[in-house]
Design a protein that fits this description.
The chain is an alpha+beta fold. Helix content is about 35%, strand content about 20%. The strands form two sheets. A four-stranded antiparallel β-sheet has the order 1-4-5-6. A two-stranded antiparallel ribbon has the order 2-3. A hairpin with a 5-residue loop joins strand 5 and strand 6.
Length: about 190
């Protein structure tokens, strides 16, 4: 069959070129897997995400920006919200999709006239709610484009001292834009 002794087969030019080709193909396959495996496919640390969403402003903490942006991209793609097994009793975060008018802040709810009645929409796609010690702490509303605004509970505000006030500012502006209430007519009785 082969003129070469069996111990020399491994050193033959044919065998070497096959090993080299196989190595190149393996390296190419690994590189392609790395190229087609998007950065978004990496798991997000649920505990870090919980801490970041509970922060006064996650955008101002450099370590929070990548994981929060990642979890928002994941949610926009229909992936589940990450969990944290070390959170402790009463500390958790969860996600729910927005649904106007029942689950959307009034300042972000839009109403359009439809053929069969009003049509409601929300400026935000969903919200991540954080509970600390069993009580509501913060709710971060997010859009598919990655914009967020956080609604802090009174307990959170008392504990934090300072926080991102965009939600409160938007609510105050919305209240100021409402027409004044109609005067109450006095009855003649």
């Amino acid at each position: 069959m082969n003129d070469l002794p069996s111990n020399r087969l491994a050193d033959s030019p044919v065998r070497f070129s096959m090993r080299k080709r196989d190595a190149v193909m393996l390296a190419l396959a690994v590189a392609m897997c790395g190229a087609i495996t998007p950065r978004e496919a990496r798991a997000v640390d649920g505990c870090l995400v919980l801490l970041c969403f509970a922060a006064p402003s996650w955008r101002s903490i450099p370590q929070c920006v990548p994981p929060i942006k990642q979890v928002l991209r994941d949610l926009a793609r229909g992936k589940s919200f990450p969990t944290c097994s070390m959170a402790g009793g009463g500390n958790s975060a969860s996600h729910a999709w927005a649904s106007a008018p029942s689950y959307c802040p009034p300042q972000y709810t839009r109403v359009f006239d439809g053929e069969s009645g009003p049509i409601y929409s929300c400026d935000y796609s969903g919200a991540v709610s954080v509970s600390i010690n069993g009580g509501p702490f913060a709710r971060t509303w997010w859009t598919m484009a990655g914009d967020t605004v956080t609604e802090f509970s009174p307990a959170a505000k008392a504990q934090l001292g300072t926080w991102d006030t965009r939600f409160d500012d938007d609510y105050a502006a919305w209240l100021a834009s409402l027409p004044p209430p109609a005067p109450i007519a006095e009855s003649g009785y």
